[in-house]
Amino acid sequence: MFVPEMNSMKRFIVIAALTLAALGAYMAWKGYTEGPRDLTRESAELRMDARELYERFSSDETAANAEYLDKVIELRGEILAVDTAHPPTIQLATDDMLGVVSCEMAELEGIPEEGKTVIIKGQCTGYLTDVVMVKCVMITTKDRKQ
Description:
alpha/beta, 2 domains, five-stranded mixed barrel, 3 helices
């Protein structure tokens, strides 16, 4: 009588393991085929000035991480520098001489001029010495005087 119970238990364990393996394989396949997140089609969860975002991270990184990490944010700021290497990066000015908001662009069509005000949408990945935004897309570019 002990042997049939053991066989049914083994059968249950094998079926459960195969089900979990199939589910894991499906999730891995789905994640692989979806590709990277495309922010051109996503709406921004927040809109703010680059200086304000930097100030929040530099004053309380833990609270800022809880509020902004992995969120899609639309930032308005003045271009401090443009790096066209791969990946192209636009640095937005802050009130801190040593820190910037670094926007890693998904692609960069044309080279925006330093000193222009831009609106950039991207995903916030946190704070090192700079606030880092990735997968960014340019929304608008304006002259500083406007």
